[in-house]
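LOG
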Amino acid sequence: MDEGWMLRAALGSYAAAWLAPARWPRLVMLAAALALGLHTASLLLRWAAHGHGPFTTMHEILSSSLWSLALVLALAAAALSEARAAWRLAAPLLALLALWALVAPPGRGHFPPTYATALLYVHAVLGKLFLGLLLVAVALGSVPLARRTPIGARRFAAAPGDARFDELAHRFAAFAFVADTLMLIAGAVWAQDAWGRYWAWDPLETWAFATWLALAGALHARATLRPAPVVHGLWLAAIFALAFLTFFGVPFLSTSPHKGAI
């Protein structure tokens, strides 16, 4: 089975994991494990065929990001019962990435000489870890919102169990902030080594810094203002939307989001 068909088989297994009834947890876990295994093999085959990691084309970025997000969600669900209750809330986002990866051109991309460094992989892994941890935080923070009715102030009233999901969402957001900070530092060191500057305010750097500021603000507000769980969950969802645009909007709109990446 070649890389393309293996990816399609992985996406089918993801769909089975997302659609399987929650009362059959073993089937869900088996389908998720099969999907991750097939997807890993697909990425490794592409890596071996092209001689570099899946970081250059939109197809590669989407596929590798779907894999990393699914892996972080699966690990969180394996470790926490609350994450198992929340992970399905992330399924629409994963489905969007899967469909987008299917229609994105799968051809070979350009691998600039400045990308031939271990710092690229450190930077990329930290970025994917950041996005995965933030997605777990959003899924956990969305549980209080999913429980609400659309009637008046009840949308923002506390319900039993909300505090636990809110606290876990805050913790995962804090872990995501650490990964985001390290990603920016690794990227700056790589930029200095590759292009002779730490920062250039190019589109990707600007949006990444805006995301970092928004997440820092959310963590500070959670610690000082103590917003209601629903408000906190909505704030985290908005930050994830900003991060999503940073990761996938800028590369989609620009073939060279980094200055010097040629």
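LOG (cont.) second protein
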Amino acid sequence: MGTRGVIFDLDGTLLDNMALHAEAFAVFVQRHALAPFDEPRRRQLDGKRNRDIFPVLFGRALADEELRSYADEKEGLYRELSRGRLVALSGLDRLLERLHARSIPVAVATSAPPENVRHTLAELGLDGRLDRVVRADEVPRGKPHPDVFLAAARLLGVPPAECVAFEDAPAGVAAAKAAGMTCVGVTTSFTASALAAMGVAPDFTVKDFDDYLKGPGAWLMDQAGSSST
């Protein structure tokens, strides 16, 4: 079955920025005297919604007002730290051009809040090119549930089985696979072996989009070829 739609996660996928999120979380947990935001905690929480992250960090249920306050604080730190420092992952522009040439629609499916989506896409100069976005706060359940990817497929008008999803985090890989999509794991945040060890492995792993176009996405570079993944 061919590829008729492509769905990108945002953070850690369109760009290698999860270290900046980790930096923001490090400042946040220090301010609030919480346990360090270390590698095991990242494996557990990367890719999830803030409403699912902060109760784990604080070890208790949080009222909606608390959740909003903590999320606003941490995401404000991220935007301050990342301003002027964000760069698209290698090969992204070329991949978007090849998808456009083949009339394959694209969307973003992300757990990021709306302010971060606008900030990140604007910093990358992609706000005019990637304007179909579904956020996890717009669907009933966040990653690792498939809701945000299924909503993105509906937005594109493409069956999930004919979509390729790009993801960097275990929760996102699980969500894409649960949606019935082919999943390409981008190894900016976790190694290929780490992604495979989390229970639900991606179908392919690549270091960036140039790597994808040389490997599983090589059909996009063949003007006469047909889609295969």
